[in-house]
Amino acid sequence: MPLFSSPNAPAGAPRFLAVWLLVLLASLLAGPARAQDSTLTRLIRQHQLPLVAGPQFSGAGWDKLQSSIQQSQFVLVGEAHGTAQIPAFTAAVAQVLKPAVFVAEIDPYVAQDLTALAAQPGLPTAYSQRYPQALCFYNWAEEFELIRTLRAQRVQVLGLDQVFIAMAGRFYALLAEQAKGKPARAYLHQQAAKYAAQGQAFERAGKDQFSMAEQRPSALDSLVNITRQEGPAVRQMVQYYAASYAIYQSQIKGTGGHQERLNLMRRNLLRYARGAQGPTGQPLPKMLFKFGANHLARGLSLASFGEFYDVGNLAQDLAEAQDQKSLHLLVMGKQGTAASSLSPRSPKKPRAYTAAEEPSLKLFFDQTTGPAWNVVDLRPARHALTAGKLVVGQAVQRVLLGYDYLVVIPETTASHPY
Questions:
Q1: Which pTM was predicted?
Q2: Structure confidence by residue, pLDDT tens digits, 260-280
Q3: Which residues of the chain have pLDDT under 50?
Q4: Which residues of 208-246 are buried (b: 16+ CB within 10 A; e: fewer)?
Q5: Is it true that the peptide bond before 371 is cis, omega within 30 degrees of 0?
């Protein structure tokens, strides 16, 4: 006898009952999920405050953030790159924190050039014409003005990243400045001019091509060989360039590179920490970080393509090791436009986006309304999660565990290349 049938059942009853039981089962399974969504929604609504953006930030949300910033040794701003509003927000955070160091998602050599360029009047257009896009995110006017603001406050700029992919011409020029041997110096000057001209040609053509990505392994072999007799500073720079090249090649080929990049950034942060603490182990200074959002969560990174522990996790460890706190701020636009290129010559228009592109934040976006920004305190939801009172998907879980506040910008505008 077929399951769920009876001697007096009408035709089609078995199918009807089976479907009914499936619907019932689905509703029972969906019930806890809806309840958890309801719990998270309630916590978001209860713990969000408005923030009024402008020349001066204000409002209850800003007051809340200021209090948390003042209690923290490190503040980490995790962002979506290419939006004009976030540099101004970061500058406002710096006014409260008063950091000694700004830690950026750039390499140490870009950081060195930015520090020098920010001391000069105007935007670094001449530099960018010679070395197109070499300043990474700081080719955008709003980002460069952030550096100028920080420099006026005597904040050190610290770069942790691999050599930027558009930096080849400038990097070889820096090597030539330090090389002592005549053959090495002549070779490096020649290569610097070659790669600078190549970068300018790519820029004029509006192409997203870069000399470092185009280099063959033989070019790296030549660089290592010609500098073999140079001093330790030059050899160390060459080693750094070679490691960066290897990371890019792995990323281009799709064979890896991400973990190696994170390891490099964390080693650089540890190296800075050892130097700043000195032999007596003195406390680290106040530090302000600004990276892409994937990099600054505590615990597991927000990156959905693997399990990675990033700069934000190490920053928390360093803070707690000296009985201090790290504050992790996730700053995201709900909708608007974001820059899609570092180049003013690029044919690419600013990218339009909507809240649907960040499914892990959809529930948060749905509960926040403009025209003011919204500051969502994530810590109550995190406490509910760790207490077993809230069950959410992995992506939302990483947000709650990784960040203390979500700052929602109702609508962003794209950063402007200069």
A1: 0.90
A2: 999 999 999 999 999 999 888
A3: 1-35
A4: bebbbeebeeebbeebeebbeebeeebeebbebbbebbb
A5: yes
